[in-house]
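Re-run requested by the PI after the first attempt was lost when the workstation crashed. Everything re-entered from the original request form. Ligand of interest: adenosine-5'-triphosphate.
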Amino acid sequence: MTGIVVLGSTNMDLVAYVAHAPKRGETVTGRAFSTIPGGKGANQAVAAARAGGDVAMIGAVGTDEFGAPLRHTLVASGVDIDLLRTAEGPSGTAHIVVDDEGGNAIVVVPGANGTVTALTPGDETLIATADALLLQLELPLSAVIDGARAAHRHGVRTVLTPAPAQPLPPELLAVTDLLVPNEHEATALTGAADPHAAAKALLRQVPEVVITLGAAGSLHARRGAEPVIVPAPRVTAVDTTGAGDTFVGTLAVALGEGRPVEAALHWAATAAALCVQRPGASTSMPYRPEIDEAS
Ligand code: ATP
Ligand code: RIB
C-alpha cells in the first residue's frame, strides 16, 4: 500500500540569484546561478517522503540532460518512480529569479509535463491503493481532473494545490477534499482579498481549505467548524521557493498518520520554515528528524 501518490510536474529549476528582479526592458547582473530539481509535483513528493511518508510519483521527465537528475532526486529521497514516464523531448523547466529578500518570480515551461494528459490503467490502480492523492496545476488540467476523479471513485482523499493560479472547473472542485491555495491564489479564485472571506467563499465549493499566508502561517477552515490561524515560526527567509510544496507534502504525511489537523499544520509550518532558510526547492526540504527536532 502506498500512503501518498503525487500526480504532478517535475521541473529543472534554473535559478538566478539577484539583488532585485529586473523590470521589463531592464538587465541586471546576478550573483549566482544554480540548477536545482523542482516542479510542484516532485517537490511535494520529495517533501512527503523526507517527512516519513510512503510516496509514489506519477508524471513525466524528458529525454534531455535534465531527465536523469530529476529522476535521481526523487529516488534518493525515497520516492517510488515506477510510473514516472519518459517523454521524447525536453523536461519541464522553471526559470526562477530569487531576490535578496528571498522572494521569487517564476516562468514555467512544461516540456514533458505537457504530455501527461490522462491516466493509464496502471496509474489508477496505484491511486486506488493510496490514502491521499496530491495534485497541483502544472500538468494538463485533463490529467488533474482524471486523477482526482479516479481518487474519488476509490475513496482516496484528494489534496489540490491550485498553482499556478487559474480558474478551477466545477468538475474538479466537486472531487477535491482539501484545497490548499496561497493567499494570492485564494484571492484569484474568489475575488476576496481577506483570507477569512476567501476561505468562506471556497467552503461553498470544497469541504476543507488551508490558505497559506507566508510568514503569517496558515488559515484552516472546514465546513461546520470555526476557522483557525496556525502561526509560522519566526525565521529569516533566504529563498521561499518550494515552501508551499514542503508545507503540503509534510501536511499530507501528518494527516495520513492521523494527527489532529492543528498539530499537523504546526508540523507542516515547522518543515516549511526550515525550507525557507535554505536556497532552492528540493535542496531545502527537511528530513523527519530535523522537523521533529525543530517542532
Ligand atoms: P512558494 O514560495 O513555495 O510559492 P507559496 O506562495 O505557495 O510558497 P506561502 O504561503 O508563501 O506559499 O508559504 C507556504 C508556507 O511556508 C507558509 O504557510 C508558512 O508556513 C511557510 N513560510 C513561507 N514563508 C515563510 C517565512 N518567511 N517564514 C516562515 N515560514 C514561511
Ligand atoms: O513551487 C515551487 C516550484 O514551482 C519550483 O520548484 C518550480 O519548478 C515551479 O514549478
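Saved to the shared folder this time. The mean pLDDT is 96.
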